[in-house]
Amino acid sequence: MAFNHFVKNEFLTLLPQAYPVGPILHLEDNGKQSETLQWLDEQPARSVVFLCFGSMGGFSEEQTRETAVALDRSGHRFLWSLRRASPNIMTEPPGDFGNLEDVLPEGFLDRTSGRGKVIGWAPQAAVLAKPAIGGFVTHCGWNSMLESLWFGVPMVTWPLYAEQKINAFAMVEELGLAVEIRRYFRGDLMAGEMEMLTAEDVERAIRRVMEEDSDVRYRVKEMAGKCHAALMDGGSSKTALAKFIQDVIENLVV
Hints:
It is a single chain. By secondary structure, this protein is of the alpha/beta class. It has a single domain (about 35-210), classed as Glycogen Phosphorylase B (Rossmann fold), CATH 3.40.50.2000. About 40% of the residues lie in helices and about 10% in strands. The chain is built from eleven helices and six strands. The protein has a six-stranded parallel sheet, sandwiched between helices. Helix 8 links the parallel strand 5 and strand 6. It starts with a helix and ends with a helix.
């Protein structure tokens, strides 16, 4: 929708033809049902908030504790894909914490054992596909946002680097499809200068995104329908792809 508006702008008429195709997603099911996915199947619909920050998203011990306090206070069920920050993100990806009890608040795992899980890597698309997921705290990578919209899951924006801040702004301010933790984020993960978010910041956003009848949830559900319709016969994506093929054929030099 946003891209269609972009390409139709009168100031872009001199540019080459653009063909808005998508959303393009890799949602192949490998048939494996992990313990995490089985746990999600046992949870009520839209009751679990999922926290996942991509392959490069890792946090300091201090930020990890603040996030844990937020989850504890919120009272919501949660699935948290937790990675430790890399000492040099340019040469070494984030890894798992050696002992979670050393970095999480005292008693956190015991207090939340009945309603939450802390894991390492997560099969993100498979998790978002589960009916139990009611909200997604994300770094706002492009694939993550597309997957969240495809499955109709409202987002909490927590951008870490690169274009993610722009993506977050678009989701919150322009499209109304996400909840912000803060309007403006300072720092950049790649530069090793991440801004600390307090437990109060994170808890407030989690409570907002998990509201059952919020305007954000309604708009995300509506957008999910548009995403699916775009890929159907007669949808905007298939129509654009057919137009692209036709234009290529017509412009072939024989």
